[in-house]
Amino acid sequence: MRWSRVVPAVLLSVPLLAVQAASPAQAAKPDLTVTVVQDGLAIPWDLAFLPDRSMLFTERTAKRLSLRTADGSTRTIFTSPTHMWASGETGLMSVEVAADFATTREFITCHGYKADGNPEVRVVRWRLNTAMTSASYVRTLVAGLPATSGRHGGCALVKGSRNQLYVGTGDAATGTNPQSLRSGGGKVLRVDATTGKPVSTNPYVRSGNKMTQRIFTYGHRNVQGLARRSDGSIWSVEHGSYRDDEVNRLVKQGNYGWNPVPRSSGDPAYNEGADSPMTDHTLPGAQRSAAWRSGDPTVATSGAAFVGSSWGDWNGALAVSVLKDSELRLLRFSSAGSLREVWKPSALDGTYGRLRGAVRGPDGALYLTTSNGSDDKILKVTATP
């Protein structure tokens, strides 16, 4: 296992692919250094840091959770727990450390689950033992998120304020899920991170349906990333169909407009054609447009994190990892959420292949995971203004 490979960044600004125009006032770009901190992995999906700066990371298809200590040693915490299920795009996906980890030693995962032949996606809370060598099941926070073949399984987690947990889900490639308030598919849910119960200020908390009570926003296709900005707002990243990957600034009860249902007798049951835009403004009510979109074709945006002060003028920009185009994109937004500028650093433009996860570490660095299928890596990106 190799521990570091440093690549100095040569910076390149690229034009915006979406229809919005970038601001003429361009921000100064920092110098970047990319270091490989772990290799030899198989589709690492997400990572999260413990208070002592140890790192938990997941591998999707292997259903493996590992821990990398602050001194650089790595150990497996678990592999393929009972009923954990992987198929297609679904497996062991997101991981988030509980806000009360210091007292509970607990963390949260989102993963595929299958019992009695019925697949679904679940959000589960676990407890790490004191030796940090294994974990035990604590409770299921959310069950019954839809799954079919494993396509469009989501799944993204991010902590909110006051012990809140946001859960971004996929639509399971089922056309009616995103607009149905009785389905957990194609949604961002907001729950108590300890119990999984809905937050009392959720828009549909008075519903008689438990899943409906958890809904924060709906009309999503396949949420791959969630990030919390310093102002407390939650932003989602999701895959488009053949067009329009999206970054969305989430607003409670917002409908983001994905509705891939048949439009005529000849349409397929899951309609991703030209008459199913990512944001369908013909639906009843107001639909919320994306803060950024890729246009046609998609680039397969995935994980996301807001970067910090070491990025200079790009402090507070959203770093978005990209799968199909094998790159990192930095999106600079105004405080109101308007797009100002897009930057694609050349040091991460195809150098490491497909980029999946993006997490801001406690040291201020940006940590990325690759998703090439073999010898995948965890990368550390440091910025110098």
Instruction: Give the low-pLDDT segments.
Output: 1-23
The total count of strands amounts to: 26
Q: In percent terms, what proportion of residues is strand?
A: 35-45%
- pLDDT average, as an integer? 94
Structural class: mainly beta
Reported by name, the CATH topology is Neuraminidase
Largest sheet: 5 strands, antiparallel
How much is the radius of gyration in Å?
20 Å
Helix proportion of residues, in percent?
under 10%
Shape: globular
* Strand line-up in the sheet with most strands: 1-2-26-25-24
CATH class wording = Mainly Beta
CATH architecture grouping: 6 Propeller
CATH superfamily: TolB, C-terminal domain
Oligomer: single chain
List the helices and strands in order.
Answer: EEEEEEEEHEEEEEEHEEEEEEEEEEEE
How far apart are the termini?
Answer: 31 Å
Figure out the total of helices: 2
Number of domains: 1
Structure, explained:
- This protein is mainly beta and 385 residues long.
- The protein has a single domain (6-384), classed as TolB, C-terminal domain (Neuraminidase, 6 Propeller).
- Helices cover 2% and strands 41% of the residues.
- The chain has 2 helices and 26 strands.
- It has a 5-stranded antiparallel beta sheet, with no helix packed on it.
- The longest helix has 5 residues, at 210-214.
- The protein is globular and about 60 Å long.
- The model is unreliable at 1-23 (pLDDT under 50).
